[in-house]
């Protein structure tokens, strides 16, 4: 009966079979960092946190959204770096590259403001164990919110939206990258799952209004709907800053279970990812084989146009 529902047509092009990961188990480090107005301090502080996570066995380290700068439209142009111009123009990514190479770990480098020509982006760089830049994700969905009396913020006043979903093969598996507000759009997580991602990483700085209601809910929904791991990393909370982050960096397993989390203070979470659970959960609950391709489909425009 299920075959008559054409589950393979629920993803266009058809979903890629989950690739065999290069490792079955490894430790991930989530570095929930305090962020100040001192950029040099922020870079040195992030380096120390990465080194400490690696000392505890982390083979993949995730940093927060906008970890080298205050989170504000006034700060983005001041702290922005030209990543493509090389190490002299981007001290933040130069540090990430050097540490990834020296420690032989994979780093999903949170995000920093990026300057490219006359445009600014909110950008996440992924560095491999050789220190080379493996991927660069520019935040696709800009955070514009207006809840009177609670929070008003418009990233679109200064930032430009990215144009490309990002999936990257690393020494710790295939990773889909999103930044903060990207997690609110389940189509992106579904697209990454259809591209064979084992893990989704979202550096993010949810706020004190949406954080308590949506942060964990969205992570668990993405994980259980797509039957993969979801890791998030927030800045630590600074109640005196103009934008107050919720914190609560988290790792969620493929059955929607919270495997590790923290509160709002600065912390480094070390937890294990076991990819054998992906196949187990997809066997327990074979969603991919039960989708109704005769009724709906998700179109991956980029993949479709590249065929």
Helix/strand layout:
Elements: E1 11-12, E2 25-32, H1 39-55, E3 58-62, H2 75-79, H3 91-103, E4 106-108, E5 112-116, E6 119-127, E7 133-138, E8 144-147, E9 151-154, E10 166-170, E11 173-177, H4 186-194, E12 199-203, H5 211-226, E13 229-233, E14 250-252, E15 258-261, E16 267-274, H6 276-284, H7 287-290, E17 298-299, H8 301-306
Parallel strand pairs: 1-17, 2-3, 3-4, 11-12, 12-13
Antiparallel strand pairs: 2-16, 4-6, 5-6, 6-7, 8-9, 10-11, 13-14, 14-15
Helix pairs in contact: 1-3
Number of strands: 17
Mean pLDDT: 97
Sum up the overall morphology in one term: globular
Radius of gyration: 19 Å
One letter per element, helices H and strands E, the order comes to EEHEHHEEEEEEEEHEHEEEEHHEH
* Major sheet characteristics: 7 strands, mixed
Number of alpha- plus pi-helical segments: 8
Give the quaternary arrangement of the chains.
single chain
Structural class: alpha/beta
Low-confidence residue ranges: none
Helical amount among residues, as a percent range?
25-40%
The termini sit apart by: 31 Å
Question: Can you offer a commentary on this structure?
Answer:
- With about 300 residues, the chain is of the alpha/beta class.
- The chain contains eight helices and 17 strands.
- Strands 2, 3, 4, 5, 6, 7 and 16 form a seven-stranded mixed β-sheet that branches.
